[in-house]
Amino acid sequence: SLLLAIESSCDEMAMAVLKDQREFLSSVVASQIDIHAMYGGVVPEIASRKHVECVSVVLKETLKQANIKMEDLDAICVTKGPGLVGSLHIGLQVAKTLSLAYDKPLIGVHHIAGHIYANNYEKDIVYPALCLVVSGGHTELVLMKHPYSFEVIGETLDDAVGEAYDKVGRVLNLPYPGGPVLDKMAHLGKASYALPKPLDDDSYNFSFSGLKSAVINLAHNHKQKGLEINQNDLATSFQNVVVDVLVDKTIRAAKEYGVKEIMLAGGVSANRGLREKMKEQVDMLEDVQLSLPPMKCCTDNAMMIALAGKVMYDNNKFSDLSLGIKPHLDLELESIGGD
Ligand code: ATP
Ligand code: MG
Ligand code: FE
């Protein structure tokens, strides 16, 4: 099969062409990070305007790199949600227009299913699997007993991990987004600041707003007293606490549900500290393997939407032209078959 995938849920306009299981003929990501960095975060109104400006160029480039024509495609996959309303609209409208004009089936993909299926990039996911989804807007543990079946066994009660990273980054006056910068700094410092361990209970839920506030208060208190804060040490202290709770709960859930594979997904799965600690802990489990998405598949891209869309394509899960965007789409309801 030959699939075109379109992703525009936030501030990236991305497209990719997937041939069969995992051969990518092209992948283009038009990022707006430079623009939103001036505001310290994504400005939705600007994101959708920029999408309108670049969408045709991205499509042209994606087809050119793949050396194919629209006529060659078997289907068009597009992120239908969750995400920013204005941003989602651009990608979906383009997908529907192409679907109508070239008479190609349309496949609406859940953005987080896309992040999870980035783990199909190198080899097939082994089920039952457990995925720790850590992104800018989501932090959840997803149990997959079968292909494309999703059970959310725990989630954040407040901030997502990526959001906490970015807010801490903003308080420390780091360039946006704070996540990757803090990750680098965390490898240069030592954990000299005592921070509260976030929601260390026997549920699989998470909470990061208390930790975030503790870091922000610490920074403010130092400033008020005219004391210099060691930013690298604070980054290390923050990252250690975050990574510990994420890895602990994932490993405990993996044991309880007897999964064969543990996966990471979402932008924060690029985090070096998280990847290292998870690997160390999974290595100690018997008969459980770890899957880490390749770095270029961690933050938003269209390859991941194509990989999830491919499973839907193989299961004949097509949408008609009445498909609308779903800013708050439930992942579990996207499950195909299984229980
Ligand atoms: P969602 O997928 O929940 O809708 P999103 O698409 O905005 O949210 P992603 O693109 O998946 O989010 O990830 C972006 C987030 O990942 C940002 O918060 C960014 O700071 C964070 N991030 C990226 N790299 C790293 C890293 N190395 N360490 C920590 N955080 C990181
Ligand atoms: Mg983004
Ligand atoms: Fe995302």
Automatic annotation (TrEMBL):
It catalyses: L-threonylcarbamoyladenylate + adenosine(37) in tRNA = N(6)-L-threonylcarbamoyladenosine(37) in tRNA + AMP + H(+). Residues 24-306 form the Gcp-like domain. It is found in: Cytoplasm. Its main location: cytoplasm. Binds 1 Fe(2+) ion per subunit. Signal peptide: none annotated. Its EC number is 2.3.1.234. Its cofactor is Fe(2+). It holds the Pfam family TsaD. Required for the formation of a threonylcarbamoyl group on adenosine at position 37 (t(6)A37) in tRNAs that read codons beginning with adenine. Is involved in the transfer of the threonylcarbamoyl moiety of threonylcarbamoyl-AMP (TC-AMP) to the N6 group of A37, together with TsaE and TsaB. TsaD likely plays a direct catalytic role in this reaction. This is tRNA N6-adenosine threonylcarbamoyltransferase. It comes from Faecalibacillus intestinalis.
